[in-house]
Amino acid sequence: MIRSVIKATGAYLPKKILTNQDLEKMVETSDDWIFQRSGIKARHIAADDETTADLAIHAGRMALKNSGLAPEDIDGVIVATTTPDQTFPAVAVKVQAALGISPGLAFDVQAVCTGFVYALSVADNFIVRGQAARILVIGAEKMSSIIDWSDRTTCVLFADGAGAVILEADKGQGGNADRGILSTHLYANGNQAGLLHTDGGPSSTGRSGHIVMQGREVFKYAVQYMADVVNEALASAGIDAAALDWLVPHQANIRIIEATAKKLGMGMDKVIVTVERHGNTSAASIPLALHEAVSDGRIKKGDLILLEAMGGGLTWGAALLRF
Ligand code: ACO
User: Fold this and answer.
1) pTM of the prediction?
2) Could you identify the atom of ligand 1 that is nearest to the CA of residue 211?
3) Atom of ligand 1 nearest to the CA of 314
4) Which terminal residue of the chain has fewer beta carbons within 10 Å of its beta carbon, N or C?
5) What's the angle, vertex CA 125, arms to CA 119 and CA 131, rounded to 5?
6) Residue 273 belongs to what H/E stretch?
7) Ligand 1: which residue has its CA nearest to atom 50?
8) How many angstroms does the Cα of residue 215 sit away from the middle of ligand 1?
């Protein structure tokens, strides 16, 4: 059977770093409050003239370079983002053009912080059905562009960045020993859309709007949904958490990450954590964390990895893969 294997990763973080101390000068908050509640110390913020596509292109270019492939070897580009440069065209077509990738499928996926898991799953389905052999999958966000910088309940959490992977078709035996994506699990509950949303959009206000969040409610569902979907992924493979080499969670809040690890009985030494330095980069957070752990040698070829995320929608999901 065909499996989608991660051939290479890439990432990009904007140069500007905004610390909790910087935020203390902007809103009524403190380093202590932010760190205690979220685990965040600093985050990267894109320059005014730097767009989501710019971030995505940097990350995609790095993944392409690390893969040793040529642009014409790539059959498609899928970008997970909630903060596109324009309503259309998609960020993905900008990446395709900038990297010299030949015409093929290119589109964006919008599932907020779960976006990368959704995009990975979509790309996996194209590959498994034989419709594409290699897809560049990117999570890229300029969350700073939809933050209300006077709202201390949200502006201390979100940030900018991009991460990328190249998925490539490979032959597998159909078991857990195969390299590549073993299963994906996607969910949404639209009845909970009001808990985390923007107060605008093209067809309503004509503006993109700003993030509005009921943090405490989102926190509660995040812990529950994450545990549910992670257990479903493990059950589908007939394994328990002890079989995992790494958990690469969406980096929203260290308390949510720790709660999920605890429910799995996993030590934090097996969890990739970047939230302290990256903040919540929405769809970019998982591929950013993945790239970091691959680059520093923690994640190795053959490791069994679980990705999990939860975000606006509410949406949530997980992907089990062997690197
Ligand atoms: N600095 C200081 N005080 C603050 C700040 C701040 N930045 N923000 C809020 N407060 C105050 C509140 O006003 C409140 O004060 P009050 O008690 O006088 O009313 C108090 O701190 C406690 O506020 P809570 O919102 O109850 O704090 P909580 O412990 O729930 O932490 C947080 C807030 C960090 C947002 C938490 O609820 C959380 O992480 N929720 C999940 C959010 C999340 O993960 N969102 C992303 C999902 S992914 C996506 O799709 C984008």
Assistant:
1) 0.97
2) 51
3) 50
4) N
5) 110
6) none
7) 311
8) 5
